[in-house]
Write a structure and sequence with these properties.
heterodimer, A: four-stranded mixed sheet, two-stranded parallel ribbon, B: alpha+beta, five-stranded antiparallel sheet, two-stranded antiparallel sheet, 5 helices, 9 strands, elongated
Chain lengths: 147, 199
């Protein structure tokens, strides 16, 4: 089986090719092109002279989304959410990444408060949509404990 | 079992953390969906308790409010603190809002002590609740540090824009005048109000 894996990062696009039978491992690195991630992929494939039709598996991953979240370089976005839960994006997990660092700060939410709005549907009531399945689920699993 | 994170106390050089665990530092917030799948509860709100932060040169953190509707009969027990004595401010900072847990049954609304005579609003066991009862569980805000009138006006405006307090509260607590929506600093009016209050 010939497997090929590609990771598109913010700076480099890495490619690894592995053959289960010959145990041959090949790899190469191409520069990523900002806003055109496919170009780095094609450049890496060309550099290794890979015939796609000879591959059994093509795996593709990217850190572009992670980078976007970390660097906050994406578009300005708003959030429409269930009424009563507009703050949840800001409340986050109520967890401190560094429990012994008294100067630690939470990360700002991806969408600021002024751009988080409640949808007006107001449909979360007993007997309707999510709450109906909630009741069935709760009976079935009453023995499950939760912290 | 229900834990709620609360507001951290203000720090000497930073605001208190909003809605975090302090004593149980490796706990995380239950997701609304998981709570609703495991228990006969409908969450009607999970959000900041406003304005719960104790004012100060650095403000305390915000507490969290959770509103629940019981979809089945249940028994409630509680072991909480800071319902009567709020988290205190330091060096001129104001107290945070205390914790509370209130019940509404039909037209009656009050603390567990007021409705069920359990002797304490925060510590009781095996109170029988009924389907249709509503609970409002609030965790406290952190105490403030230093005089609120020394709070950086721009930081107050950021809090207004973020929705942590409204313009009236900004003027009352911090003598900062915020205009418009989502909010901009009125520097001249702020200077006047602060001067009138001795700053």
């Amino acid at each position: 089986v010939r497997r090929l894996g590609i990771d598109v990062g913010g700076t480099f696009t890495d490619l690894v090719l592995y053959d289960d039978e010959t145990l041959e491992l090949r790899r190469c690195k191409a520069l990523s092109v900002p806003n055109r991630p496919e170009e780095g992929v094609l450049a890496a494939l060309a550099a290794l002279d890979v015939e796609l039709r000879e591959l059994d598996l093509f795996m593709h991953g990217t850190t572009l989304v992670t980078n976007l979240v970390l660097l906050r370089t994406g578009a300005r976005v708003g959030l429409l959410t269930t009424s009563g839960f507009e703050d949840l994006l800001d409340i986050q997990l109520t967890y401190r990444d560094e429990p012994y660092d008294l100067q630690w700060e939470k990360r700002a939410p991806l969408v600021p408060g002024a751009l988080r709005l409640a949808s007006s549907s107001g449909s979360r009531r007993p007997g309707r949509c999510s709450s109906r399945s909630t009741r069935r689920g709760s009976r079935r699993r009453r023995g499950v404990s939760s912290s | 079992m229900h834990y709620t994170a609360g507001g951290g106390g203000a720090r000497a050089s930073r605001d208190g953390l909003d809605g975090v665990w302090w004593t149980l530092a490796n706990c995380k917030l239950d997701s609304v969906e998981i709570v609703e799948q495991r228990f006969p509860l409908l969450l009607e709100r999970e959000g900041w308790q406003r304005p719960s932060a104790g004012p100060g040169r650095q403000r305390g953190g915000l507490g969290i409010e959770r509103r629940l509707l019981l979809l089945d009969d249940a028994r409630a027990s509680a072991l909480n603190d800071r319902h009567k004595l709020p988290p205190w401010g330091l060096f001129g900072g104001g107290d945070g809002e205390p914790c509370s847990q209130r019940v509404r049954r039909g037209t009656r609304e009050g603390s567990f002590d007021e409705l069920f005579g359990v002797g304490s609003p925060s510590k009781f066991a095996n109170v029988q609740l009924e389907r249709g009862d509503r609970l409002v569980l609030r965790s406290g805000g952190g105490g403030g540090y230093g005089p609120p009138l020394d709070h950086e006006p721009d930081a107050v405006v950021r809090d207004v824009v973020e929705g942590y307090l409204d313009a009236d509260e900004a003027e009352r607590l911090y003598a900062v005048v915020v205009r418009g929506d989502p909010g901009e600093l009125d520097a001249a009016a702020t200077a006047d109000v602060r001067a009138a209050r001795g700053r």
